[in-house]
Amino acid sequence: MIEQELARSHKSTIPNHSGKETMLELAPHAQIELILQLYMKEERESTMQTTFKNELVDYYDVKHIDEKDQKQLWCMASHKWGAHTQRKAVHIMPFRLRQLPLIHILGKDVAEELWPVKNGHILEAEIEHYFDNCQPATVPSLSEEDA
């Protein structure tokens, strides 16, 4: 029921792209989009998630073979090796967030960088569940120049 109501009201939240809106004027639309997307999960093919996980493993180089010839992956949160079946690929900014709200929140240059491997971690399956429900927050480390 809530999903139907949110989907109905969702149609009225998309801003008119006249190019004259400022980031501040678009903020309420981005907030509504975010809330809607937290309730409306999109199903995706398992091959997409597998590809994303493989890309993360290669990018971060978090794989090794243990003494029993078993594939192990490093959890970036617990700092422990574990069976690859117990490690999940997570999106820092949730997969279900669409590009438009990310641009409204983070700006165009930053939002465009979020979808490849720069927007992911390999985590233990127990921790991944919390990320999928948008419970933890990842705070990027800023350099002295950015601070």
TrEMBL record:
Chain spans, region Disordered: 1-22
Protein name from the UniProt record: HNH nuclease domain-containing protein
